[in-house]
Design brief:
By secondary structure, this protein is α/β, with parallel strands linked by helices. Helices cover about 45% and strands about 15% of the residues. The protein has helices spanning about 1-15, 20-30, 35-40, 40-45, 45-50, 100-115, 135-150, 170-185, 205-220, 240-250, 275-280, 325-335, 350-360, 365-370, 375-385, 395-415, 425-440, and strands at about 55-65, 70-80, 90-95, 120-130, 160-165, 230-235, 255-260, 265, 300-305, 315-320, 340, 365. The two termini are about 25 Å apart.
Length: about 450
């Protein structure tokens, strides 16, 4: 459609240096073309022109002092992209790769992801190019306090509610919240992923990984399939990957490979997740240490600096980072007979990889639908904190499972409605977009 093409071309000209954002926008806008034939009022109201521009971008310096007394300066960001259906909601990422393009792409995806949950939350994302790896608790605390000294001016429980993301776990959320509380003199649900001691929710740690398995289970049902007896490869060994593995194993899958940035562990008899947890959650070490553990299986092997997708599997769950799964990797998966791919990370598959999956009838669940369990449980955490209540693990888990099942039903129905049966990229993007678009029109030209 000419309208979409014009908007996309203009976006590329204006943001030519923002490759990650352009990639995300190309995928999303390309798949929602059918919407504009059914809703001519969207073009009349210049909706796409507004939809692709963040409502607000905040960028600031973050000075902090290390344990030696040396001063460091990092960049801090918050992209408040769209608040049509609720206050901005999205994680903070601390990683050297963080820049404005990465955060705009993540925030843009977050708009649709949050919409798909059915909850009243808009889309945002933020973070810094600070790397917490190898830093002491004191250094991380001082950085977080400096970061929040600026960010606190722009967030609040009814304005913008950040959460954790890559590089921002329970430690970082605790330091960030402590500084917010000190500066604002108020104890509210302004940062989710909080510790259980100060208002956090059960299942929040497990939510993204568990949710990934729940939605994949729901997608497998009409195909007469399940996780039981399937070989599963999971990229990553962080929070999402670990709990996706835990839930997959609990429903009968055989998780045979996991990785970090330096290499992967492969065991055809199934990895020992307790060892992975010990290395990553307690020691914050490298996955190569798996082979040094006394309880490792003799069949385990470590492969350094290689593509984990070379391991034959029935189900692939990319849970590491953006653009980790290339066209080449997608072709390897197809060649090896993988029939099911569901994303635990944010946009881990490149657009070329997605094309390979769709052309070869691979059941592909995009991250904006498949990894929405984290933000959904964040919203459940907000509800509990606002009402000063604590729900049981089972209650939160059941709510999460129902949300993920409903997301699959919604994207499957939408894909069929717009003539793209089994194309969950189209289904997810359109289902998420239409809700936001209608809210934007109802609220006028703002």
């Amino acid at each position: 459609m000419a309208y979409v093409d014009d908007i996309l071309n203009d976006l590329k000209k204006k943001n030519s240096y923002e490759t990650e954002f352009i990639e995300a926008a190309t995928e999303i806008l390309g798949s929602i073309r059918p919407v504009f034939d059914a809703h001519p009022e969207y073009e009349k109201n210049f909706l796409l022109e507004r939809f692709i521009e963040p409502e607000r971008v905040i960028m600031f310096r973050v000075p902090w002092v290390d344990d030696k007394g040396d001063v460091h300066i990092n960049r801090g960001y918050r992209v408040q992209f769209n608040s049509a259906i609720g206050p901005y909601k999205g994680g903070l990422r601390f990683h050297p790769t963080v820049n404005l393009s990465v955060l705009k792409f993540l925030a843009f995806e977050q708009i649709l992801k949050n919409s798909l949950t059915g909850m009243s939350i808009g889309g945002g994302k933020g973070g810094s190019d600070f790397n917490p790896k190898g830093r002491s608790d004191g250094e991380v605390m001082r950085f977080c306090q400096s970061f929040m000294s600026e960010l606190h001016k722009y967030i609040g429980p009814d304005t913008d509610i950040p959460a954790g993301d890559m590089g921002v776990g329970g430690r970082e959320v605790g330091y960030l919240f402590g500084e917010y509380k000190r500066l604002a003199n108020i104890h509210v649900a302004v940062l989710t992923g909080a510790g259980l001691e100060f208002g956090g929710s059960l299942v929040r740690k497990e939510a993204t990984g568990y949710g990934l398995v729940y939605i994949t289970q729901e997608a497998l049902k009409p195909r007469g399939e399940s996780f039981k007896g399937k070989d599963v490869v999971i990229s990553g060994s962080g929070n999402v990957a670990i709990y996706a593995a835990e839930k997959a194993i609990s429903v009968g899958a055989n998780v045979i490979a996991m990785c970090d940035s330096q290499g992967y562990i492969h065991d055809e008899n199934g990895v020992d997740l307790s060892i992975i947890k010990e290395i990553k959650e307690l020691k914050r070490g490298r996955i190569s240490e798996y082979l040094d553990h006394d309880n490792k299986k003799k069949s385990a092997e470590y492969v350094e600096h290689d593509i984990i997708w070379n391991v034959d599997c029935d189900i692939a769950l990319p849970c590491a980072t953006q653009n980790e799964l290339s066209e080449e990797s997608a072709k390897i998966l197809v060649k090896n007979g993988t029939k099911f791919v569901a994303e635990g990370a944010n946009m881990p598959s490149t657009n070329d990889a997605i094309d390979v999956f769709l052309k070869n009838d691979v059941m592909y669940l995009p991250g904006k639908a498949a990894n929405a369990g984290g933000v959904a449980t964040s919203a459940l955490e907000m509800a509990q904190r606002s009402s000063r209540l604590t729900w049981t693990f089972e209650e939160v888990d059941n709510r999460l499972k129902k949300i993920m099942e409903n997301i699959y039903i919604n994207i499957d129905k939408t894909a069929r409605e717009y003539g793209h049966e089994n194309n969950y990229v189209v289904g997810a993007n359109i289902a998420g977009f239409v809700k936001v678009a209608n809210a934007m029109i109802a609220q006028g030209i703002v």
